[in-house]
Amino acid sequence: MHRFGQHFLIRGQVATDIVKVVEISETDTVIEIGAGRGSLTKPLAETGARVISYEVDTSLKELLQLKLKSFNNVELRFKDFLTVEPSELPRNCVCVGNIPYYISKEIIEKIAQLSFKRAILMVQKEFADKMTAYPGGKNYRYISVLAQTFYDVQRVMTVSKKDFSPPPSVDSVVVKMELRNDIPNFVEYRNFIRFLLSSPGKNLSSVLKQVFKGDTNKILKKLNLPMMNTKVRRTPIETFLGLYKGWLSWKEQNSLNVY
Predict the structure, then answer these.
(1) Model-level pTM?
(2) 144 neighbors 132 (Cβ within 8 angstroms)
């Protein structure tokens, strides 16, 4: 494996198919996570869209500059995508990337924070299972709730491990994410659902007693949300959102924070 956990895409047709899924035009700005050896960067640039490509590995700089020298619509930024602030990017960008498994969760968190209008990501199959899991399913967890709160997530295609160098241990899946909700305070929402989902086997109403203190019954009755007596791991996205909004209102009235 490469020192940054990268598995480089080596089959050109896969890159072409991914670019088709992205659905971009010359007026779009595409943010690429991990230029790698430019396997995706080049076909993205060929669409005429503006491409801003992040790559943490500076040893790839010379190769990338040579491969992309004929394109004036590509900007290479050699820095960690996870350090990007919203102010660094234009609004309404599209995000594309073949992301390393070991930081997949952190990248999804960053994508949610940056509110891309669309994201097309290649992730390992096990992670795609978590991103698309339903309430109560064996893979339903924090990252399922986070991803599906902000985005409609769907599987697009499977990519064989043989299409990478070095080959990973499992196949990959391309997922398409369309922006669903833009929650202003990402960090608060992330911390809220992370707190609730730290006790997946407990009843939701029991965990909420730690959030709303002595006001739990009154607040839950006012919110009138379903499934308060179900397990946290069976709780649907809409209920998490409703609880978060109720918690924000309660916190504002009481000037308190449970974190």
Answers:
(1) 0.89
(2) yes
